[in-house]
Amino acid sequence: MSPPSASCTLRLDCQLRQGDFELTAQGELRWHGVLGLCGPSGSGKSTLLRLLAGLEPRASGRIELDGDCLQDGRRRYSLAPHRRRIAYVFQDARLFSHLSVAGNLHYALRRARSCGLGFDAVVEQLHLQPLLARGVDALSGGETQRVALGRALLSATRLLLLDEPVSALDPQQRESVLRALESLRDNGGPPMIYVSHAPAEIMRLARRTLYIANGRLALAATATLSQASDLGLCT
User: For every residue of 132-192, which 3-state class applies, written as one string?
Assistant: First the structure.
């Protein structure tokens, strides 16, 4: 029997202003497995992920993850990004080009205090064994993103942020990464927030979906994905 999907509780009361744009997120989120995040271009999806990861030092307010305070503006407290144990996988994988695939994975493992899945389990789930000796310049787009996922998992992450990780891939490469994410979701991987413009990807992966528009996060969204697509929320 596969282990249950990991659960997560996120409490938000935070704001971030960038020029004329303002992001506001308030409320409590509880989910297990994959949480989809959908919205039009410029709505604040990536900004929200960066805020959670601790990459937006100008943000104000409070963020809690599973009861732990990550940020509290009143106390002028913000936990450093590397101490949040929140991994961020971008559209471009940002691997270390001077290291092999194995070197990239072991680098993450050395920096982590622990890893729930373990090196061998991550390699097996993401089908990385044939890639370990390769340099990252010899990888396809799909292989590169699978290695980036492996590195994120080995960093002992308790929340995995995925910012359109397959948008730049061809259909075959996209399928390999989506299958890897399904395997993580169904076999004890960490909770994930998955950002995409593609309703089909979110319907495939996510157990719950949130919508964001004009910097406002709908924590109690009731629209279906098809309705959201018709309204332009997933375009």
Answer: CCCEHHHCCHHHHHHHHHHHHHHCCCCEEEEECCCCCCCHHHHHHHHHHHHHHHHCCCCCE
Q: Which residues contact residue 157 at a Cβ distance below 8 angstroms, ignoring those fewer than 6 apart?
A: 85, 86, 87, 190
Question: Which pLDDT tens digit goes with each residue over 36-88?
Answer: 999 888 999 999 999 999 999 889 999 999 999 999 988 989 999 989 999 99
| Cα 152 from Cα 111, distance rounded (Å) | 11
CA distance 233 to 160: 23
Burial-class residue 177 by CB neighbours within 10 Å (0-12, 13-18, 19+): buried
Residue with tokens 């704001």: 15
- Determine the residue type at 216: R
3-state per-residue secondary structure call for 58-125: CCEEEEEECCEEEEECCCCEECCHHHCCEEEECCCCCCCCCCEHHHHHHHHHHHCCCCCCCHHHHHHH
CA distance 223 to 151: 35
Which pTM was predicted?
0.86
Tell me the per-residue pLDDT of 106-126, one tens digit each, with 9 for 90 and over.
988 887 655 556 888 889 888
pLDDT, position 90: 82
